[in-house]
Amino acid sequence: MKWEVVIGLEVHVQLNTASKIFSGSSTAFGAEPNTQASVVELAFPGVLPVLNRAVVDKAIRLGLALNATINKKNVFARKNYFYPDLPKGYQISQMDLPIVGPGTLTILVGEEEKVIRVTRAHMEEDAGKSLHEDFQGMTGIDLNRAGTPLLEVVSEPDMRSAEEAVAYARALHTLVTWLGICDGNMQEGSFRVDANVSVRPFGQAEFGTRREIKNLNSFRFLEQAIKYEIQWQIDTLEDGGRIEQATVLFDPDSGETRMMRSKEDAHDYRYFPDPDLLPVVLSDDDIARVAATMPELPGQMKARFVAEYGVSAYDAALLTTSLAHAEYFEQVARATGQGKLAANWINGELAARLNREGLELAACPIDAPRLAGLVVRVADGTLSNKLAKQVFDALWVDALSADEVIERDGLKQVSDVGAIEKMVEEAIAANPKAVEEFRAGKEKALNALAGQVMKASKGKANPAQVQDILRQKLA
Amino acid sequence: MSLTHQDVARIAQLARIEVTDAQVEATLAQLNNIFGLIEQMQAVDTTGIEPMAHPQDVSLRLRDDVVTETDHREAYQAVAPQVEKGLFLVPKVIE
């Protein structure tokens, strides 16, 4: 039987505020345990939460970027459950009236664009951390993370493969870092993904029973976990089994998902409006104030790169995977007036090298002005592609400009007609057989002669010129 | 609607409250009373009335994003039954 995969994602985006969502405690990562937990996070009797304005503004920012409805009246609710890293016995979240309503996010799968619907995004507080290492047979609790502001972004079940799910997660990651509302650090848990996965026979209208994979903190694990889960569900169904609704965890060591809890012991959260917090009411001005600070968004910038610099849609998509990439490209393109060539170098040589060395663009040893210096010399014919790669390698290790490297290593391409003519004549004289073959109509023989000239020039002759002069001399 | 003994046991379990059989009996009667009141309220026609999330028709005031708290770990942990290396210790929990 042919199966169709259905995936929806819930992403917890940690907002990069200075203080917590409901108190003036610091949110800085990595502090000594419990030194950033105030009486609000510790749930001392009588304390009251006071909402951080920056959390509201950042939520509006994401809402606007997703073309979503902003609910001008939204309400906090209590989600009740018992766990020691949540001292109040409830998490303050939003249920019926979240701040961000339906919107959309466009993703790129291969070279195809697809629009994924976003159901909602709501504000909530993070819980603390439980450390299960042995503390005299007890569990250690660190509440520094408790009260850190989160936006939970929920998608519709619009994705049909693990690749689409990863593309959506990446697009959302790009967007929240682009907007400057999240640091995007997945190792530190700033961007955590839950995946709801089900399968159904092709053509069936109803969804299959879903299982939720919790807390995936890398794109690689997200893809591995979904692929494993899909195969497991298909195998189970084809063996005549049934899928039970459940929450599962992914084990990166075994590459498998395993059941955490079944539907029978699923939580009953007994949500109700939090009487400690009044409804959040936003005015048109509140929204306009945030809208006025919105940057050019990835989609808009992509379209502009195609129109303004003549790069392909695919190149433009690669160049807008992060704000850092886009800014780097634009600096090089502006400095050189060579958008396409700049895009080729950034998406080609530079991307490959960064990838090989496991570096992010921020740590790239070649900054935009120095790459621009190289692109200029390729564009004006000073450097052949081969020489340009040599200069690129030198720029990677030496703090010199492209021109300084060309001067130091004597890499200037020879475009002097007289000098090339002399080398061409020598090559013709030394290779009578190739000359004869070419004159007999064998085009390939010309390449052999050109190769000789390039060799004689130590790779510095302008290859196009060499071809032209050879043809003239042999005509 | 009327609750059963099982409903009361389940509610008590969710709230982590231990109840004896005699208490279940008494609680059942009290809860059914409350549900009777709710039923009366639900009989009122509320068509066209916007639900309220809070009894007062006022909106939330926000605070600026500024760190105002300092470290009072020692004072806060003075009332904790057990601490180690700055962590609160609780009976082992593994979900």
UniProtKB/TrEMBL annotation, chain A:
InterPro entries: Asn/Gln-tRNA_amidoTrfase_suB/E, Asn/Gln-tRNA_Trfase_suB/E_cat, Asn/Gln_amidotransferase, Asn/Gln_tRNA_amidoTrase-B-like, GatB, GatB_C_1, GatB_Yqey_C_2, Gln-tRNA_amidoTrfase_suB_CS. The keyword Transferase applies. It holds the Pfam family GatB_Yqey. It catalyses: L-glutamyl-tRNA(Gln) + L-glutamine + ATP + H2O = L-glutaminyl-tRNA(Gln) + L-glutamate + ADP + phosphate + H(+); L-aspartyl-tRNA(Asn) + L-glutamine + ATP + H2O = L-asparaginyl-tRNA(Asn) + L-glutamate + ADP + phosphate + 2 H(+). Residues 327-474 form the Asn/Gln amidotransferase domain. GO terms for biological process: glutaminyl-tRNAGln biosynthesis via transamidation; translation. Its EC number is 6.3.5.-. Keywords: ATP-binding, Ligase, Nucleotide-binding, Protein biosynthesis, Transferase. SMART domains: GatB_Yqey (SM00845). GO terms for molecular function: ATP binding; glutaminyl-tRNA synthase (glutamine-hydrolyzing) activity; transferase activity. Heterotrimer of A, B and C subunits. Allows the formation of correctly charged Asn-tRNA(Asn) or Gln-tRNA(Gln) through the transamidation of misacylated Asp-tRNA(Asn) or Glu-tRNA(Gln) in organisms which lack either or both of asparaginyl-tRNA or glutaminyl-tRNA synthetases. The reaction takes place in the presence of glutamine and ATP through an activated phospho-Asp-tRNA(Asn) or phospho-Glu-tRNA(Gln). HAMAP family: GatB. Belongs to the GatB/GatE family. GatB subfamily. This is Aspartyl/glutamyl-tRNA(Asn/Gln) amidotransferase subunit B. It comes from Crenobacter caeni. The lineage of its organism: Bacteria, Pseudomonadati, Pseudomonadota, Betaproteobacteria, Neisseriales. The gene is gatB.
From TrEMBL, chain B:
The gene is gatC. It is an enzyme of class 6 (ligase). Keywords: ATP-binding, Ligase, Nucleotide-binding, Protein biosynthesis, Transferase. Allows the formation of correctly charged Asn-tRNA(Asn) or Gln-tRNA(Gln) through the transamidation of misacylated Asp-tRNA(Asn) or Glu-tRNA(Gln) in organisms which lack either or both of asparaginyl-tRNA or glutaminyl-tRNA synthetases. The reaction takes place in the presence of glutamine and ATP through an activated phospho-Asp-tRNA(Asn) or phospho-Glu-tRNA(Gln). Belongs to the GatC family. GO terms for biological process: glutaminyl-tRNAGln biosynthesis via transamidation; regulation of translational fidelity; translation. It comes from Crenobacter intestini. The keyword DNA-binding does not apply. It catalyses: L-aspartyl-tRNA(Asn) + L-glutamine + ATP + H2O = L-asparaginyl-tRNA(Asn) + L-glutamate + ADP + phosphate + 2 H(+); L-glutamyl-tRNA(Gln) + L-glutamine + ATP + H2O = L-glutaminyl-tRNA(Gln) + L-glutamate + ADP + phosphate + H(+). GO terms for molecular function: asparaginyl-tRNA synthase (glutamine-hydrolyzing) activity; ATP binding; glutaminyl-tRNA synthase (glutamine-hydrolyzing) activity; transferase activity. This is Aspartyl/glutamyl-tRNA(Asn/Gln) amidotransferase subunit C. PANTHER family: GLUTAMYL-TRNA(GLN) AMIDOTRANSFERASE SUBUNIT C, MITOCHONDRIAL. Its EC number is 6.3.5.-. Heterotrimer of A, B and C subunits.
